[in-house]
From TrEMBL:
Family indicated by similarity: Belongs to the TO family.
Source organism (scientific name): Rhynchophorus ferrugineus (Red palm weevil)
InterPro entries: Haemolymph_juvenile_hormone-bd, To_sf
GO cellular component: extracellular space
GO biological process, one term: circadian rhythm
Keyword vocabulary terms for this entry: Biological rhythms, Signal
Protein name: Uncharacterized protein
Lineage, top ranks: Eukaryota, Metazoa, Ecdysozoa, Arthropoda, Hexapoda
Amino acid sequence: MRYYALITAACLCLAAASDIKSSYSLPSYISPCNKTDPNIHKCVEANIEALRPNLKEGVPSLFIPALDPLVIPPTCVNEEDQVKVTFKDIHIYHASDFALDQFDIDLVNHEVNLTIVFPLLRIKSTYNVNGKFLVVTFDESGPADGNYTNFRVFLGLKGSPYIENGEQHLKWEKETINTTVGESHVVLDKLFGNHTDITDKTNNLINENIQVIINDLQPVIQGVVSDFIFGIVNKLFSYYSVKQLFVS
Ligand SMILES: *[C@@H]1O[C@H](CO)[C@@H](O)[C@H](O)[C@H]1NC(C)=O
Ligand SMILES: *[C@@H]1O[C@H](CO)[C@@H](O)[C@H](O)[C@H]1NC(C)=O
Ligand SMILES: *[C@@H]1O[C@H](CO)[C@@H](O)[C@H](O)[C@H]1NC(C)=O
Ligand SMILES: *[C@@H]1O[C@H](CO)[C@@H](O)[C@H](O)[C@H]1NC(C)=O
Ligand SMILES: *[C@@H]1O[C@H](CO)[C@@H](O)[C@H](O)[C@H]1NC(C)=O
């Protein structure tokens, strides 16, 4: 019965998706930029400002999910290790307050370089630490909270053109990615159950080493960020042709 319901739901979604493909249109407050405009970054910035009031709730016709809070899938930060740290129920606050620091586009070679800065992100989640350390086995969960300033993402994208229904579309792939964080402060609550003194000491230790920890987590952070960005960008460029997104 459950499987039947699932299959029906999947079919309905597929039917809806093929419908949507032909009926999607850009929101009226978006003005496509001129591909050959030397100040194209200004035009892109102006469009972001036009979008901004809607970013908290998301913009379905541009495949942008709600950005404040932004809910992302559970993430294990160290698959290989004996002691696994996993975060779930990840809610990111203030993600809609980003600024586009740099935007270079070359639509002849289909290259984009951009830098996005989030002045402040607050990330709340539920952590789980489980595994074995020496002879001690543990499995602890609790609320995690963190504030991060100046989270900066530098991204280089490379597009491959393809033709669909006689129109050019682009499939984007990651060329380069780099992320940096300014100041961070995190708190993992109830890390050692009722032993608040050990929990406090551990949290102090984590915060004293936060830059090193975040540096070690770069591959995980970059994976989450690029999955998120490419999820949006590739849906956008698959549903809309280059001609719909840019004027020339
Ligand atoms: C993007 O950056 C790379 C080097 O990181 C450079 O080779 C390329 O020309 C840049 N592309 C644009 C469109 O600025
Ligand atoms: C994050 O910032 C908020 C607002 O200033 C504050 O209430 C909260 O305690 C901070 N959390 C951490 C882990 O620093
Ligand atoms: C990432 O950016 C930082 C700051 O701009 C820089 O110091 C570092 O070399 C960059 N790392 C890579 C792998 O590009
Ligand atoms: C924590 O302390 C409370 C009250 O002192 C007690 O009811 C609870 O069982 C304790 N939990 C653990 C995991 O020790
Ligand atoms: C785009 O820019 C080019 C050169 O800057 C100009 O010739 C063309 O008319 C512009 N197209 C539109 C639709 O504004």
